[in-house]
Write a structure and sequence with these properties.
The protein is α/β, with parallel strands linked by helices and 202 residues long. It has five helices and eight strands; from the N terminus they run H-E-E-H-E-E-H-E-H-E-H-E-E. It has two domains: 80 residues, Translation initiation factor 3 (IF-3), N-terminal domain (Ubiquitin-like (UB roll), Roll); 83 residues, Translation Initiation Factor IF3. Helices cover 32% and strands 25% of the residues.
Length: 202
Amino acid sequence: MKNDDIKFQYRINHRIREKEVRLVGDNVETGVYSIQEALKMAEDQRLDLVEISPKAVPPVCRIIDFQKFIYQKKKKEKEQKAKATKITIKEIRFGPQTDDHDYNFKLKHAIEFLKEGSKVKAYVFFKGRSILFKEQGELLLLRFANDLEDYGKVENMPVLEGKRMIIMVAPIKKKAATSSPSKKKSATDKPGKDSGSDKKQE
């Protein structure tokens, strides 16, 4: 298991074989100690002697709660993994004079990509003298961004990079729909059938 993999990355207590270690940390006086001294100090504090830098001479150790140390390492790795989550980028290529049929076909694909959580990198490719239609390409990308506004958020305005004018659209994170509380009908909301008819005439 992953937890075990993290544990076995470190030598602790009697698994540390060196004769001397360098202790660091807030709960000790930094310096070089014999392994027996270091183990005794860890035992006195009811903590573990953990080797954190095995390649140093002598290896560097800390006196800490090993279980807590592993928990924090696991938490940090999880956070880093979450930040490094890969985002798929789908590319859509236009020509500067793309007709409506081709445009709508590619727009449909872009909507599908955004719905599945991918980013869309759309660009107009200018081949040869078609660079003269630069403004036309920019208008096409702006139209594209506008047509996708319900599905994606534009990360940057059209920018020319070499022979390509690029726009990037990121998917919109949908918020959970909140249902409005239903209005309960009070007795006064009921038809006039019951109102006033409960009084008996004498």
